[in-house]
Design brief:
single chain; 222 residues; alpha+beta; Alpha-Beta Plaits; 2 domains; five-stranded mixed sheet
Length: 222
Amino acid sequence: MRYYKLRIDGIYPSEYRQKLYEALAKEQEAGGLDYYTIIEESAPPLEMIKDIVQVLAPTLTILKILYDLKKEVKDKKGEIYLTVNGKQFDLEAHNLDDIKIKIGEPLTKRYKVELSFPNLTQKELKEWAINLSSRPVYFNGKILSPSNTVLFADYDDESGKVKTTFYIDDQEVNKLYESGIAIYATAKVLKRYEGTPYAQTLFTSLILSREPTQSATKIEES
């Protein structure tokens, strides 16, 4: 399934932030979206907060939530901005149908993969696998744009593998996958301070390729 990737920037009193997150949580429970990155910053005046939310949604039902909330927030001298695929949309200047047309078709796909690392110990995987989360994605040796990213990764006790979910809006990758061509994944591992009490095993990026290797695993749509 393809998803819209939306970024919501808000400056508003804290009670409106709570309203937004309650609405997002309700939609998430209904399977209508997935919000996966939350950044909160201070913003003047003191009673206001600055909030940034990244949302993935298979439909644009989120627009009605934002449209209604923007009307309330504006009365409190607050603002809400919507950015889709790097393009900002004015929720006041257009009606919802106009915005839907301008946004177009969803581009992002969600994938999953279970990664094996035979050269790493179970202790290393348990302790460090999670740091693959939010890492960049490479395809055929080239780094993809920052909108292509690992959502979450962690060690799975049952399988002994690193379960990884990631998002791709690179159309070359998505079209290859949709055409039935297998794409494989592994992760770049960096070991630091080996042999000392400060030893680290870092997962620095997710690497996609059309070439199967002994350590690579075929990705699946999530």
